[in-house]
Write a structure and sequence with these properties.
254 residues; 3 strands; TonB/TolA_C; mainly alpha; transmembrane helix; Fusion Protein Consisting Of Minor Coat Protein, Glycine Rich Linker, Tola, And A His Tag, Chain: A, Domain 2; toxin transmembrane transporter activity
Length: 254
Amino acid sequence: MVSSVLPKKLRHNPGRVRAIVYAVLVHAVVIGLAVIGFRWTMQPPSSEVVQAVAVPEPPARKPEEDNKRAQEDGARQKAEAEKRRQADLKKKQEEELAQQRLIAERKKKEAEEKERQKRAADVERRKEEIRRQKLTEQSLQEQLAAEEKARQQAAHAARAASAVDKYRSLIRQRVSQSWNRPVGVAKGLKCVVSVRLAPGGEVLSAKVVRSSGSTVFDRSVENAVYKAAPLPLPEDPTLFDNFREIEFLFSPEE
């Protein structure tokens, strides 16, 4: 474009044209720097510059939009409140359920403990009943044994008494058969003689324990006892204890 405005004589000298162009550019740069420097020196510091910013005013809202927004906010707040209420209710229900579980578990343990104590008490009561029953049975057996023993003893005593009476009479008869009345001894005399016997009827001793008043008569009775040996005894050996020592009245006339 520059070459179109140059005179024709310069068009035929390219070097010169370039020099002129460079000179123009250099001057333009220097002038631009000078202008920029001048503006910089005239501009106040950035900290003191107050730049006005235009804030656009919000568009005016209609009353219907305000009502709708208020309704939406109210509905949202109500929903959030209901959500919190439901969460609190759920938490309360869970706490109550957990508490009920704890109470149920405690009651279950208490019931199990009572049942265990009841079973233990039943076992102890059963043991006590068995012990008392055994004691009762033992006492009954002892009572029956004592009664049986007493019955046997009574029967034995009855047999012994009967045997004593019987064999005392037989012994007295045997002694009477062996006795000879001494010369000069009056009739009607009698004495009680005690005789100690050995098994089989052998006489260990014979002694008058209640005298007739006549020494001759008494000695004759003692001699008759020895002479009559062995004296008659019952065949039952259990009755011998009743004849170890026996007393009987000797009266020749009876």
